[in-house]
From TrEMBL:
<keyword id="KW-0808">Transferase</keyword>
<dbReference type="GO" id="GO:0004015">
    <property type="term" value="F:adenosylmethionine-8-amino-7-oxononanoate transaminase activity"/>
</dbReference>
<dbReference type="GO" id="GO:0009102">
    <property type="term" value="P:biotin biosynthetic process"/>
</dbReference>
<dbReference type="InterPro" id="IPR005814">
    <property type="entry name" value="Aminotrans_3"/>
</dbReference>
<dbReference type="InterPro" id="IPR015424">
    <property type="entry name" value="PyrdxlP-dep_Trfase"/>
</dbReference>
<dbReference type="Pfam" id="PF00202">
    <property type="entry name" value="Aminotran_3"/>
</dbReference>
<dbReference type="InterPro" id="IPR015421">
    <property type="entry name" value="PyrdxlP-dep_Trfase_major"/>
</dbReference>
<dbReference type="GO" id="GO:0030170">
    <property type="term" value="F:pyridoxal phosphate binding"/>
</dbReference>
<keyword id="KW-0032">Aminotransferase</keyword>
<keyword id="KW-0663">Pyridoxal phosphate</keyword>
<dbReference type="InterPro" id="IPR049704">
    <property type="entry name" value="Aminotrans_3_PPA_site"/>
</dbReference>
<dbReference type="InterPro" id="IPR015422">
    <property type="entry name" value="PyrdxlP-dep_Trfase_small"/>
</dbReference>
<comment type="similarity">
    <text>Belongs to the class-III pyridoxal-phosphate-dependent aminotransferase family.</text>
</comment>
<protein>
    <submittedName>
        <fullName>Aminotransferase class III-fold pyridoxal phosphate-dependent enzyme</fullName>
    </submittedName>
</protein>
Amino acid sequence: KPNVPVLDSYWMPFTANRQFKKAPRLFASAQGMHYTDVDGRTVLDGTAGLWCVNAGHGRRQIAEAVERQLTTLDYAPSFQMGHTIAFDFAERLAAIAPGPEGAKLDRIFFTGSGSESVDTALKIAVAYQRAIGQGTRTRLIGRERGYHGVGFGGISVGGLVNNRRVFPQLPGTDHLRHTFDPVRNGFVKGQPEHGAELADDLERLVALHGAETIAACIVEPVAGSTGVLPPPKGYLERLRSICDRHGILLIFDEVITGFGRLGAPFATDFFGVVPDIVTTAKGLTNGALPMGAVFASRKVHDALMQGPEGAIELFHGYTYSGHPAACAAGIATLDIYESEGLLGRAKQIQAEWDAAIHSLKGLPHITDIRTIGLIAGIELDSREGAPGTRAYDVFVDCFAKGLLIRVTGDIIALSPPLIVERGQIGEIVEILGAAIEAAA
Ligand code: PMP
């Protein structure tokens, strides 16, 4: 009996990704750094699932905490009522919240995913502006090659042009025009000082639309899903100062960079640039249960909750906001991060990671290699007339050789669990290098 179900017998159980239909790869179990597929083959996880399983797979501590919670209080409404575990988790998160001591973004709103966190953050920004008497500020600025999930808010501020072409965009959204050109502006190529110049594109949008119409600007500190684009030096700092000058809130989407991916708890801490709102999900629960959290400054929170036209008028919250089992998973995840020092581990192995990944330099087809924290982006040249197919072949070959990578167009992304051992970094590079060499 084949292990792979007949594909025609169901319709789109996962994503709308057609590549899955071409060659399904089905996982059956996972432990530590490895998946096992339905044929019993072991696959090294080079992507922490989908940038989320930061502490590795199958953590018993998380499973036990979830079971305990489900048999104690499985679900309770968060409207009019509450439950203690959500407050316990919020308190734990507040202690490590992004931002410097004394000015942490320690006001926390729970959601069910990264996309929900983004929608929530955008709504908080607009509602905040209204609460401080700036009701004309409803415009939301994203940026080209930004990725903020698949809600209408997220795709509207996002930079995936195909999505924006198919779906109507939220009115009053616009985008910083610069697409990072990694080869010209990239982080690893000598960190040229293009950052400030690029961020000045926000001034163009302010001049075009008027500052009095703009509520917030949202960016990923390091763009992940669109191809691993670390910010050029000075970029985030300049965005912060332009936002300050014009009363615009700055939102960092840390769904990927949050919880230790860069070797600091948050990218906010890593870069030392403090936004007004931070979105998170993924590593919040180690991917064990779906959950997100939005961190806001006290300034934003207090105005929103107490302003004359504040949140009291608004209706926002999800059935699963602060879901008890997800909170239990989150607390257990934080326990692991803290006891194993995982939020700083990427920094400790940064030198080895960089050296290993950059040792791929010189292989055919590679046009750029970027690393930051425990993330790598390896860009290949496109096959003529068939962009993305070469990287996809590398993906298939790696999988056959026992390594899970991620590809976006012709860019290969790596982001292993933060527990990755040095020997496993070597394994990742060996398998990937062989697959790139074999790709015609
Ligand atoms: N924002 C960013 C930066 C992301 O990387 C993602 C997911 N890759 C999202 C938002 C959306 O998160 P989710 O898929 O949990 O909705």
